[in-house]
Amino acid sequence: MTALRSTACIETAVEKCREILRWSANPFNSVYLNPHKYDIITLARWAQSYCNNRAYMLLLRTAEITGYEPVPTELLHRHIAKDGYKNRRVSIGKSAFYLIKPDEMKPGLKKRYKKFKELMEQVIMELQAKAECKAR
Fold first, then answer.
1. Domain count of the fold of the chain
2. What is the pLDDT of residues 18-62, one digit of tens each?
3. What is the DSSP string of the chain?
4. Looking at the predicted structure, is the pLDDT value of residue 101 above 60?
5. Which domain holds residue 93?
6. Are 92 and 55 in contact (CB under 8 A)?
C-alpha cells in the first residue's frame, strides 16, 4: 500500500515539473514577430508559463550551487514544520518545492527523491529530443 502511494506521489511530482518544463519557448519574441497572431489572454497564459519555466530552471541552478536539493511538496508526506523545512519553501506557479540538503533527508525521502530525479532526467531527455526534432 505504501509503495503504491509512494509511486503515485512521485508520478504526480514528475507531471507537475514536466508541465513547468514544457513552456521553454519565449512568448515575447513570437509576439514581436507576429503581433496580430496572439490575443491578450493567450499571451498572458503563455508568458506566465514561460516565467514559471525560467524560475524552475533558476531554482535548479541555484540548488546546484548551494548544495540543496529542490524536493517537491508531493514527496514530503507530513511533518514539514517539525522537520525544520518550513522556512525553505519556494513556490513556482501552483507547485511548491522545499530546499533540503541530501544529508538532512531521511532514508524514505532519499529513496523517493532518487526515483523522482531519475524520472525527471528521462523527461528532460524527451523534451530535449522533441526540441531538436522541431528545430530540424
1. 1
2. 777 776 778 888 788 887 888 888 888 888 888 888 898 899 899
3. -HHHHHHHHHHHHHHHHHHHHT--S-HHHHHHH-TTTS-HHHHHHHHHHHHHHHHHHHHHHHHHHHT-EEEEGGG--S-TTTTT-GGGEEEETTEEEEEE-GGGS-HHHHHHHHHHHHHHHHHHHHHHHHHHHHH-
4. yes
5. 2-135
6. yes
Angle at CA of residue 24, ends 131 and 65, nearest 5°: 105
Strand partners, 99: 70
- Across the range 89-110, mean pLDDT stands at 88
Q: What is the mean pLDDT of residues 86-109?
A: 87
Grid cell 550551487 in the structure block, residue: 65
Residues in the chain: 136
CA distance 127 to 125: 6
Distances 18 to 12, 14, 52, 53, 75 between C-alpha atoms, Å: 10, 6, 12, 10, 15
What's the pLDDT at 65?
92
2, pLDDT greater than 80: no
